[in-house]
Design brief:
The protein is of the alpha+beta class. It is 38% helix and 22% strand. It contains 12 helices and 13 strands. Strands 8-9-10-11-13-12 form a 6-stranded mixed beta sheet, sandwiched between helices. The longest helix is centred in the middle third of the chain and has 22 residues.
Length: 343
């Protein structure tokens, strides 16, 4: 196991884990924030480059309260400074720091052997120099134990709300540590495991019920899915058009005013059937041509079928199978409609 991950686990299991959010850089200056991440730097402002502050941070020659008084005397205009620098002062490489940049959460420990160095960076909002200090991290990490990026839009608000704090340093409360650990180590609560099991059962049963729908109901279901996705119907449902079953406008697409081609099949047994539909797709001019991307929606796709997409002459035909349909039914809450029509 990675040393940083092992350290997190050991501190958490020993009930000694402390977690703080740190806003790297200054004044919303993403370029410097990114550079700190790339260079594995830990940055703090508040005039941490003052010789007395720098010396105390590196040699821990004062009590924490004495250090805060020193900081207060040198930062008379900023009441955040004593608290924020005081937390940094307490860090001996055993505080887990988290930060955020461009929608990704980063975390790690400072290198306890590293010393703070003075640094001046230009605040792009004020064109003034911002004075601070940097030291090395062991490393900034942005992935869970399996190597998945920790995108902030996949994190609970328990964590992500901290990224919006107006301060520079904010504590992550101990009651949130359990969530953070489970998220990094991909550990699931009993409730999540049970919910995933129930969801998988729902998927399996919906697949059977959808494949039992008659042709008319299946076409209506496909229509409802595309309407929920923001399409606007052009052709009538269950129509007798020669080469397509449904056609939809895309009001959300200002670049293409042509309708979207949709062919619905209860079952497809071989690749030739898909090629035949593609020929209809590029050859039908009944509506003045189609959008460059069309779809075949299939209730049952034989295992022999290997083509899930055909791209030729600038046109693309995609096969949407039963798994896609089930996912969309769940996403849009359409399972009640299916259940009402089933026995």
């Amino acid at each position: 196991m990675d040393k940083t991950l092992k350290k997190i686990r050991d501190l958490y299991d020993g009930k000694n884990l402390r977690v703080f959010y740190i806003k790297l850089g200054s004044g919303g200056n993403n370029a410097f924030n990114k550079q700190h991440i790339l260079d594995n730097n830990f940055y703090i402002g508040f005039r941490a480059d003052y010789p007395d502050i720098l010396d105390s941070l590196n040699h821990k020659n004062k009590t924490c309260e004495q250090f805060k008084i020193l900081v207060k005397d040198l930062n008379l205009s900023n009441d955040q400074a004593p608290r924020s620098l005081g937390i940094v002062y307490e860090d001996n490489g055993d505080i887990l720091w988290i930060t955020e940049l461009n929608g990704i959460m980063y975390f790690g420990f400072t290198d306890e052997k590293s010393l703070f160095q003075p640094t001046n960076i230009e605040n792009l909002n004020t064109t003034k120099l911002t004075h601070g200090a940097v030291k090395k991290m062991v490393k900034w990490m942005d992935q869970d134990v399996s190597g998945n990026k920790l995108y902030t839009n996949t994190l609970s608000g328990k964590i992500s709300k901290t990224f919006k704090t107006r301060g520079t340093v904010a504590e992550i409360k101990s009651e949130v540590h359990s969530y953070l650990i489970k998220r990094i180590f991909l550990e699931k609560s009993d409730e999540k495991i049970k919910t995933e099991e129930l969801l998988e059962d729902l998927r399996k049963n919906l697949k059977v019920l959808i494949q039992q729908l008659n042709e008319t109901d299946f076409e209506v279901l496909v229509e409802m899915i595309f309407l929920e996705k923001g399409y606007k119907k052009t052709s009538k449902t269950c129509g007798n058009e020669r080469n397509y079953d449904l056609a939809f406008d895309r009001p959300f697409d200002d670049l293409c005013k042509l309708p979207t081609f949709i062919q619905i099949k209860a079952k497809i047994d071989n690749n030739k059937q898909i090629k035949d539909v593609f020929a209809n797709f590029i050859g039908d001019k009944g509506l003045g041509g189609f959008n460059k991307t069309g779809f075949i929606v299939v209730g049952t796709l034989d295992k022999k079928v290997t083509k899930k997409e055909i791209i030729e002459s600038g046109m693309t035909l995609k096969v949407l199978d039963i798994d896609y349909i089930v996912d969309e039914v769940i996403n849009f809450g359409l399972y009640h409609w299916i259940i009402e029509r089933s026995v």
